[in-house]
Amino acid sequence: MPDLGYVAAGYLATAATLGGYLLRLHGRARRARRRTAALTGRPARR
Amino acid sequence: MKRSERMMARLTGRRGERVLAGAALAGLAASAGLSLLVAPPDAIQGEVQRLMYVHVPAAWLAYLSFTSVFVASVAYLMTSRTRWDRLAAASAEVGVLFCALTIVLGALWGRPVWGTWWTWDPRLTTTAVLLLVYLGYLALRQMADSPGRRARWSAVLGVVGFVDVPIVHMSVVWWRSLHQAPTVLRPGAPTIAGSMLAALLVAVAAFTLAWAYLITVRLRVGRLEERAATQALSARTGGRPSDGQLPSVVGVQGRAGSDA
Predict the structure, then answer these.
(1) I need a surface site. Which of B4, B17, B157, B258 has the fewest CB within 10 A?
(2) What are the chain A neighbours of B46 within 8 Å (beta carbons)?
């Protein structure tokens, strides 16, 4: 692999890790809010 | 409410989150421009040295996260306040993410420079141990059967596990290592060109903003998940606490560990 290939792979891995984790956190927040809403019958606060 | 608590609430509020997100995005864009377009290639390693501008910030944030776990764990053991346990959990999760990223980026840098993806070098080995310790920390948090016990056990591991952080940092000084010695955090002046140092410092600042943003979002998710768990348990027990098994409600009790 040429040197720039390693650099591109590194920067892409960084962006994918940060973006992927953020998406996962948003999914967890949405699920938790849904669970609370289902149990209490009213929308959960943030 | 104390002034520090008010400041923290403002920072972790929805608007604070948005401001942090914007600042982090702008910082990361500036850092990418500086490190990929402005900073010169290394005289010996060439273009592949540009991985330093993501590898070093990731390693710094792993250190910062595990230091945060340590401080929050000590604070929890002293005060039993749930907020410290929540901060330790958030920091450990984000720290594991950055520690794993550090290892992956190091492997990508090591292959063209050292000729291998991985070697049992002191720095690499102690970093792998660090990752395993905090993966164990996260596993422990899933295993404990009551919130108070979980917080106490993980606080103890958060204090003990931190021992490996200075060992990782000093490993390149204490033992003969393939990994290069510190060039910035060392006694005396940094042994790195000014333009590279500037790009590196911008990258560290930008990644630190991104870290702060991830921590605030993770803290919010922690609060939401605790609330959902409390409601679920409350529904099951008809609204009565069941022998200290009920997770403390954030901002109402403010303390965990009723199962002592």
Answers:
(1) B4
(2) 3
* pLDDT score at A2: 77
The answer to whether B6 faces chain A, any CB pair under 8 Å, is no
The ranges assigned to domains in chain A are 1-46
Tell me whether residue A13 is exposed, middle or buried, using C-beta atoms within 10 angstroms of its C-beta: 0 to 12, 13 to 18, 19 or more.
Answer: middle
Chain A CB contacts of B220 below 8 Å: 29, 46
pLDDT tens per residue across span B158-185: 999 999 999 998 888 888 888 887 777 6
Query: How far is it, in rounded angstroms, from Cα B60 to Cα B44?
Result: 24
pTM of the predicted protein model: 0.85
Q: Is B210 on the interface with A (CB under 8 A)?
A: yes
The model's confidence at residue B11, banded by pLDDT at 50, 70 and 90, is: low
- Cβ-proximal residues to B205 (8 Å cutoff; 6+ apart), any chain: B27, B31
Measured between CB atoms, does B105 come within 8 Å of chain A?
yes
3-state DSSP: chain B helix, strand, coil percent, rounded to 5?
75, 0, 25
Sorted by where each starts, the structural domains of chain B and their CATH numbers stand as: 19-179+206-236 (1.20.120)
Work out the percent of chain A whose per-residue pLDDT is above 70.
89
- From the list A1, A35, A46, which residue is nearest B228 (CB)? A35
Smallest CA–CA distance, residue A36 to chain B, in Å, is 5
